């Protein structure tokens, strides 16, 4: 199987060609303003470097920050109607209540509250009122809005109302885009609703971007199927991604961690991705990033996405090194992409971490003579400081006392040498394009998040049911049934509820079904 | 009437942080309560905070709180008028107007819920509460220690149902209200313990809402000035550091509808080589260091993220977190025999006597 992985970042578009599990070629090129020509260039370059024919490519996997950036920068967002089903409950806090004002205004602040919703145990809060929904549909149509986010209370337990409301809107407003919160998020109404609304406001853009990716791939002469990677490190096919652009959020760090796992052959580890300005640190469990348990903000909006539990520190290859009264200070200020002109070794005026690495003889880069004046004492102290910063991150990311290895990837990997916190450090081959590798090797997944009454069902039966639902979801997403594995099971007892109510989350993943 | 301070919508961020600190690991996420309070203040105007001594002896003061499963509260948000409905109903029953609002529980989500009804009803809010912290059951308030009945109590849901309870004891109120809350969908709002100004002066744990606001402010300012947030919070609370360590084991189970569990820590920095164990039932209730009990309920044990100073709930505990445990003495009312019987370690099933925690 020949796969191409592409990572479209803010600065670089990286691409790799893989034959089965072997990396044949990897290239880095600049991201272009239109994104598309950068992808065309990357495809052309990486095919040339690999000596492969375009027609031999089976799959193309793309990871992109395009949709995250659209929200963060408030551009290309569609006017969106947020419809919540739950009255009389939830009226205290309307949709988008805690959003930044500029973002709310940029999508029109069209919020509607209607009857519907379920209790935690599936009972109905109030029946759906079709006339009420038809009235809302007329208002939405009159405003010319073409994308609707529907959120019903406890829809992760029962999504029936969201589906029925969606059908009504589709019948009343032909061609309207519907996003249902139960397809995207988990329990936590405002966070799930936020994700659904953000998804809805990206629908026009996603149609445009996915079409552009499709054209870029066609232009390169590739006829294979193409996918986008989502925030949990698994794939969605292009038509699914067009409907759920919000699921691409945070796919970048996920891809680099998955790529690190693959390149090093280690599935349980701590991953340090050192870029030019920051280092992202997270931990891998069975080849997947550990997910965050707290609410994550995107563009100032609180969400409960499946996001990798990655944190960043201001340490990268371009970080400023300054001597202060309190000792050595490294970062968070960085020369960033200007390292090629501003670092000492490239004839610039700024002492950076890369200069120190070169002075220490750890990397041969630029002109080493330009850093020969640095005192051995300073070099030692800077290295000790960098080491201490990284060790603290590694300790934070450790999820067990087991001696896990630390995998270091990214262009700034030259800053690290020797064990961190007594843990073995691995620098795999192709570490510079780990994120594109992560995209190329992404698997498909199915996930379930439901509340079960264990008193009725028993824990074993409930877990079995949840696992089967997750497996079914993975198969529906394109996984080869015999490759499916349950990678995550989590049950959280819900305090103060009878019947031993427990929230169970299960994730199943599998290899992409070839053909 | 002297006004201690006026609370505007933007002050609620600080109060919610302080509420989470006094929540001692439980009490529910203040996020939803905070947003509701902000909305109410934006709609009806700011809330005036008064000292309990400002109340006339014959004033009618009514505490409020939210009851139910914290997870339900994050999904099925309230309708918004529940507490106002409860107030109107209670006024009807008692044949007079309510003069001031009181906070039932200053820890967790209930640090913010009183602001919702104080704003909507245009009533002053007493700076204080009935716990000085968070506890899981509604008889666990200083009001009980003073012989005040929780009833007549009005329990309201999102649908407009209002349930009036008249009970023989506050323990019975808890049982019946808990069952009703489940029927109402796992979350409800209530007005209870109607009392006179004179009674309030005797039993209220004073100053806890302004303490919440000050804790939030302290945390914010310490971060802005690159200070040590944990030290700043400890100083504000008059708390001692019990331990600084990394979580190495977490064991959770549900018994009788409560999230019980044990967390174990290994020391870091000054505490290297030492161990720490924390037992919780929604709230953190007992701390052991190197096998020796160092703090128990009703004294307060709170966990902060070592670097950010952010309070950490029992729900969000996970392996690898680096945390600082702080302890500080409870309100003296809890240290009485009746107080210990109501909320001491034995009530929660721990086979130990209460050992008063002495900060410093």
TrEMBL record, chain A:
Origin superkingdom: Bacteria
Cited Pfam families: Hydant_A_N, Hydantoinase_A
InterPro entries: ATPase_NBD, Hydant_A_N, Hydantoinase_A, Oxoprolinase-like
All residue ranges annotated as the Hydantoinase A/oxoprolinase domain in the record: 192-362
Gene Ontology molecular function: hydrolase activity
Domain (Hydantoinase/oxoprolinase N-terminal): residue spans on this chain: 3-172
Matches recorded under PANTHER family: 5-OXOPROLINASE RELATED, HYDANTOINASE_OXOPROLINASE
Name assigned to this protein: Hydantoinase/oxoprolinase family protein
Organism: Ferranicluibacter rubi
UniProtKB/TrEMBL annotation, chain B:
Pfam families reported in the protein's UniProt record: S-Me-THD_C, S-Me-THD_N
UniProt-listed SUPFAM superfamilies: CV3147-like
Domain (S-Me-THD-like C-terminal) ranges: 169-356
InterPro entries: S-Me-THD-like_C (IPR048350), S-Me-THD_C_sf (IPR024071), S-Me-THD_N (IPR010318), S-Me-THD_N_sf (IPR027479)
Domain S-Me-THD N-terminal: 10-166
Signal sequence, start to end: none
Protein name (database record): DUF917 domain-containing protein
Taxonomic source organism: Ferranicluibacter rubi
């Amino acid at each position: 199987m020949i796969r191409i992985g592409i990572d479209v970042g803010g600065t670089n578009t990286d691409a790799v060609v893989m034959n089965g599990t072997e990396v044949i070629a990897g290239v880095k090129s600049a991201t272009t303003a239109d994104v598309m020509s950068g992808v065309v260039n990357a495809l052309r370059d990486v095919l040339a470097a690999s000596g492969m024919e375009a027609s031999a490519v089976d799959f193309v996997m793309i990871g992109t920050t395009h949709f995250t950036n659209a929200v963060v920068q408030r551009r290309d967002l569609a006017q969106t109607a947020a419809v919540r089903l739950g009255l009389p409950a939830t009226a205290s806090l309307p949709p988008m209540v805690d959003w930044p004002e500029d973002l709310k205004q940029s999508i029109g602040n069209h919020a509607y509250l209607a009857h519907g919703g379920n209790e935690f145990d599936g009972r109905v809060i109030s029946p759906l009122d079709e006339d009420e929904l038809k009235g809302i549909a007329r208002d939405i149509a009159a405003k010319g809005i073409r994308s609707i986010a529907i959120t019903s209370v406890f829809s992760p337990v029962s999504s029936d109302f969201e589906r029925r409301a969606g059908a009504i809107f589709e019948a009343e407003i032909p061609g309207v885009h519907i996003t249902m919160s139960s397809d995207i998020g988990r329990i936590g109404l405002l966070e799930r609703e936020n994700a659904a609304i953000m998804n809805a406001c990206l629908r026009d853009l996603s149609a445009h971007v996915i079409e552009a990716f499709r054209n870029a791939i066609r232009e390169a002469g590739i006829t294979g199927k193409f996918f986008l990677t989502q925030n949990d490190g698994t794939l969605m096919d292009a038509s699914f991604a067009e409907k759920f652009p919000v699921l691409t959020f945070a796919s970048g760090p996920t891809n680099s961690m998955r790529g690190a796992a693959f390149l090093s052959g280690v599935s349980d580890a701590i991953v340090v991705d050192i870029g030019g300005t920051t280092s992202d640190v997270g931990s891998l469990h069975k080849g997947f990033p550990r997910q965050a348990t707290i609410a994550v903000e995107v563009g100032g909006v609180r969400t409960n996405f499946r996001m990798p539990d990655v944190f960043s520190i201001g340490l990268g290859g371009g970080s400023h090194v300054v001597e202060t009264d309190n000792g050595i200070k490294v970062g968070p200020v960085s020369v960033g992409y200007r390292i090629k002109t501003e670092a000492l070794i490239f004839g610039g005026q700024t002492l950076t971490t890369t200069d120190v690495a070169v002075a220490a003889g750890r990397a041969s880069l630029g002109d080493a003579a330009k850093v020969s004046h640095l005192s051995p004492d300073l070099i030692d102290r800077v290295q000790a400081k960098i080491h201490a910063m990284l060790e603290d991150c590694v300790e934070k990311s450790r999820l067990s006392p087991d001696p896990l290895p630390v995998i270091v990837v990214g262009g700034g990997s030259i800053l690290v040498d020797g064990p961190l916190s007594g843990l073995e450090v691995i620098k795999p081959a192709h570490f510079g394009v780990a994120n594109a590798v992560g995209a190329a090797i992404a698997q498909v997944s199915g996930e379930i998040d439901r509340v079960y009454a264990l008193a009725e069902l028993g824990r074993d039966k409930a877990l079995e049911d949840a696992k089967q639902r997750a497996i079914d979801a993975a198969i529906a997403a394109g996984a080869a049934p015999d490759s499916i594995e349950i990678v995550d099971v989590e049950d959280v007892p819900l305090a103060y509820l009878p019947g031993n109510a427990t929230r169970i989350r299960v994730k199943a993943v599998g290899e992409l079904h070839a053909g | 009437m002297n006004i201690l301070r006026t609370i505007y919508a933007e002050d609620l961020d600080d109060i919610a942080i302080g509420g989470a600190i006094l929540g001692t690991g439980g009490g529910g996420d203040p996020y939803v309560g905070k947003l509701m309070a902000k909305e109410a203040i934006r709609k009806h105007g700011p809330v005036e905070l008064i000292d309990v001594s400002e109340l006339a002896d014959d004033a009618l003061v009514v505490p409020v709180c939210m009851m139910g499963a914290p997870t339900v509260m994050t999904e099925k948000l309230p309708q918004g008028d529940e507490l106002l409905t409860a107030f109107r109903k209670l006024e009807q029953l008692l044949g007079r107007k309510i003069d001031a609002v009181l906070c039932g529980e200053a820890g967790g989500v209930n640090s913010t819920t009183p602001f919702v009804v104080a704003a909507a009803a245009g009533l002053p809010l007493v700076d204080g509460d009935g716990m000085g912290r968070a506890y899981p059951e509604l008889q666990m308030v200083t009001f009980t220690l003073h012989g005040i009945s929780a009833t007549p109590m009005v329990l309201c849901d999102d649908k407009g149902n209002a349930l009036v309870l008249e009970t023989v004891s506050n323990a019975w109120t808890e049982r019946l209200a808990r069952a009703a809350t489940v029927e109402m969908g796992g979350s409800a709002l209530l007005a209870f313990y109607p009392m006179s100004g004179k009674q309030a002066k005797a039993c209220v744990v004073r100053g806890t809402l302004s303490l919440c606001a000050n804790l939030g402010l302290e945390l914010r300012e310490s971060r802005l000035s690159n200070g040590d947030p944990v030290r700043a919070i400890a100083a504000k609370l008059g708390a001692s550091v019990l331990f600084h360590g990394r979580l190495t084991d977490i064991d959770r189970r549900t018994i009788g509808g409560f999230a019980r569990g044990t967390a174990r820590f290994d020391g870091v920095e000054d505490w290297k080589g030492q161990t720490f164990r924390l037992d919780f039932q929604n709230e953190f209730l007992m701390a052991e260091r190197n096998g020796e009990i160092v703090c128990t309920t009703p004294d307060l044990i709170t966990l902060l993220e070592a670097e950010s100073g952010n309070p950490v709930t029992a729900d969000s505990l996970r392996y690898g977190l680096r945390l600082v445990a702080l302890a500080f003495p409870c309100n003296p009312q809890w240290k009485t025999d009746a107080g210990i019987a109501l909320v001491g370690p034995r009530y929660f099933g721990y086979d130990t006597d209460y050992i008063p925690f002495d900060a410093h």
